[in-house]
Amino acid sequence: MASPRERMIISTALLIRERGAHSTAISDVLEHSGAPRGSAYHHFPGGRTQLLGEAVDFAAEHVATQMAGATTGFELLDGVVGRFRDALLESDFRAGCPVAAVAVEADNGPVLDRAGAAFTRWHDLIAERLVADGLAEARARELTLFLTSAIEGAVVVARATRDLAPLDSTHRQLAALLHAEMGSTRDDR
Question: In this protein, which residues make up the domain named HTH tetR-type (predicted)?
Answer without folding.
Answer: 15-54
